[in-house]
Structure formats: C-alpha cells, structure tokens
Amino acid sequence: MKVLPFKIPKPRNEALVYQVDREEAFYDQLHQHGEIQISYIPQGEGTLIVGDSINEYKAHDILVIGGFVPHVFKSDTVASPRSEMHTLFFDLHSFGKDFFEIADLSLTKEFFKKSELGMRVLSNTQQIIGEFHKLASQNKVEQIATLLTIISLVTKSKTASLSSFVYKKSFSDDEGKRMNNVYKYAMEQYSEPISLEEISTVANMSRNAFCRYFKKRTNKTFFQFLIEIRIENACKLIVNKPELSISLVSEECGFNNIANFNRKFKELKGCSPTQYRTRF
User: Fold this and answer.
1) Which residues form the HTH araC/xylS-type domain (predicted)?
2) Predicted TM-score (pTM) of this structure
3) What is the CATH number of domain 190-279?
C-alpha cells in the first residue's frame, strides 16, 4: 500500500489488503485513505491523533479508523524500541456496491457508523487478536471470511470513540502537508512555549487565516489542541515516572503555572493529576 503525503491509494484489483508493519516507528505523517482500517498492535506505544482528538496507543490495542479520517501515529521509541501493526484495509464497496446492504449483514451498519469517528475496541479483544493471528496463513477467500468475523466481534464489543469531530471534506495533498507540519511541530515542541505567530509561520499563513483554517478542520483552536497534547504527555510521565513530582511533570509538558495545569488536567481527564497517578 503505497503511501503518498496524505492519501494511500488501494493496490490495483485488491478488494482486501492485509498488511504487516514491523519498524522502529510507525509511519509518522498525517494521512488519510479511502479504506477503513482495522489494526491490531502487538508491539509499540505512543500517541495517536485521529480527527480532532489526541489518544494514546499501546501494545495489544485493537483500533478502527474510518475512510478519509486524517490520522497519525507518533511512536514512543524510548518506551518501545520496536513497533508492529497488523492491519486490514477495505471499504464499503470492496466486495460489491451492495454487499454490506444485504439483510444478512444489517448488523454491520453500526460498525461502519462508529468507524467514522474511529474507535478503540475494549472487549472481546483476545478473540479478535486470535482472528488476526490466522490471517498470515490464509488465502484471500479465508481472509475475507476472517474480516467478517472480526467486524462481527467488534460490533458486539464495547468500544470508545477516538475522535469527536472529523472534517467532512477530503484534504488535498497541500492541505495534508500543511496540517502534518502543524501537528508534527506541536507534538515535537509541546514542552516549549509556542506562539500563534510561530505556528502560523509553520503553516505558512497569516495568524488570522491560520486560526480560521485550523478551527474549521478540527472544530477547536490550535491552543486547545496543544493543551490536549501536553496533557496526554503528562499522563505518560505521571504513570511511567512516579519519581517525578506533579509540579515537575507540569513544567516538562509546557505548563508554566501549576494551577492552570491542574485545572486543564481535571477538565480533560475528570480527576486531578495526583488522583490519576493513584489510579494507575
């Protein structure tokens, strides 16, 4: 599956693509593709941006990302020096225009609806992982049957959305590159002060134009987005480095005011940083 700056075209004459990626880090450019992807991650952890939202991913996650939903994986190569992902790519019409419309497959409608915002599977994961383990030795007919089994299992499972808003229009390559540059800069520089003038320059836009552009495509301001990145990274430090004080975590994640950090943390996570550490 060839990767372009923002689009991944489906290989010719293949209705279903099964792909295994084993790398030091996953492809870290913001991208979208027409295919829905169902991914199992045996190894690796890091940050996942889907649509307007920042998430963590870790080993043994099962993730579903809908067609044309912008997303990017940012691997944490310190926490996990190797990354591995097994993915099924397909779309609503892969097996014929009306295949998923037949009455026997009516239960799949919920799957496709939820995939529009992306989802993390929270139950039945061992059964789904078991199905993924079969794929490497299967022929195409068997892989299609396994895909239907996985969709059925996901439909029966408890899930959590990966985003709350997805820009409905497909991005052009130029737009994809611009948003990728903004996301990449924010994920790499979140611990430092970032001004509106600075990030507008990264996007090669005026400040006012950038604010309108970003809000339209993510349904939030850039600084709301930046705070979410900082809080997600704070969560990792709180759990993985218990020797760090909450005050130091706050500083390392770009907050210069502990009271503001505590307030934003509670807004996004529903508890204080200290309570979060106790839970995990």
Assistant:
1) 180-279
2) 0.84
3) 1.10.10.60
